[in-house]
Amino acid sequence: MKEHEHGVNGVPSVDVAGEVCLRVIGIVRSCFTERFGIPRQPGLVRAATARLELLPPYNRGEMVRGLEEFSHIWVQFLFHRTVAEGWKPTVRPPRLGGRRRVGVFACRSPHRPNHLGLSVLKLEKVVFEGGEVALLLSGVDLLDGTPVLDIKPYVPYCDSPAGAVGGFAMESPPSTGIVFSPAAANFCREYGEATGRDLEELIRQVIGNDPRPASQKGRKNGFAAALWDVDVVWTVGAGGEVVVGECRRLTAR
To answer: Does residue 116 sit in the same domain as residue 12?
Structure first.
């Protein structure tokens, strides 16, 4: 962080036109191991879970004392996989069908000047294990390995203002029904018995929100997304019907 030599009461002042160095306080271990398939907003896929592991020296019990009293938290993070792609002054939000451009500050695109993201997530549990501290989360929209920069409690009386207007995103996107092939349904059942993970419900919610980019809406061949350590393959018919045809274990991540 660039600073002046002198400040108020001996505290250096910050050059607001300079750069700020941020510290990563934690890493996300998520069910989304690839970018494709991640919901475009938090809370849309309630079955999507993650473990936020705090890093030293921030993995101390006193730093999360009282957090368990809140049902949700704000997580500020870095879109680390888009940093190398740079930023854009305008983007085409999927919510507008990829046909209309809006300013980057009028949407939640990851291609931002500082690549910062902000999600409100359900806090399932604060975990203390062997001197380590982790937060179990659900409704996540975070890629596995995402660096976390800050955590704050969600406070309903001020974080959900009455009369708020959501511009071009006032309503939740519609969800699509999903059909599983016998082979896919059987895989989900056996996977759940072995891991305790409800893969079928995760697939229903992820694909039901249609993760395809606008440019791919007319494509009729198959799509695939990685969820946990599973490759999920599905097709979209001419009438919009979605069929999960195959689920297979990924050999390596």
So the answer is: yes
